[in-house]
């Protein structure tokens, strides 16, 4: 006989609490072999966050670190294409799902790897009238599977590329606490204002150290005259509420070609000025993580 809501005592015999505890334990066990989990976030789209994540992963791998990338953008996944593994599929293994690896041995997990048609949208099936009640749970379940069911092995760094905006902050907090969060912005007023608002929410929800800010498209690199030119009007020095700026990366048109080719920019242009800036960012990120870990730095 069907029960009304007020007739149910506890969880109605489904042992929801027990199931959630098992999932948390599996996730905790999986991440125990990963030294640093870093969330890469932005307050708005169009700042080049995924391109930065791609090259940050490449730079860390080129420095000899074991790296994995989880694309947390369920509806607009792009990292598999940028990292050159879009045509490969995860394979079942003895200890979970084996993720595809890039030419730099970066392990990648993304919703795009499960789509038979790259042009097909990701749509969760369910009653549309109650979508607001179940959609968030399905998104959390998908992200949990990416993290808990993937055989990441031993990693030095797992980068989680969050979708634009702030919707996934609560989801990530319910699953794990990252070693820190890296914020991507643009050197213009609009982006800084939006990023500033997202920083407030990130501190309240993620409760993980904010590692610093990367200003993307900080000028552009001219291949013809081999110089850096301004891309935006000169603005006052940014103040991200005390967060250090870990890097200012100029735009290079070859970033676009590299993304389309599924080959990180750093593989071919590490010696170009933008490449040198990216490699320097990798060093500063590693140093910042070490400082936060050793000092047990509170959330900024």
From TrEMBL:
GO terms of molecular function: 4 iron, 4 sulfur cluster binding; ATP binding; ATP hydrolysis activity; ATP-dependent FeS chaperone activity; metal ion binding
The keyword ATP-binding belongs to this UniProt entry's keyword annotation: yes
Record-linked CDD domains: Mrp_NBP35 (cd02037)
GO biological-process terms attached to the record: iron-sulfur cluster assembly
Signal sequence bounds: none
PANTHER family according to UniProt: IRON-SULFUR PROTEIN NUBPL (PTHR42961)
The protein's name in its UniProt record: Iron-sulfur cluster carrier protein
Organism field: Sulfidibacter corallicola
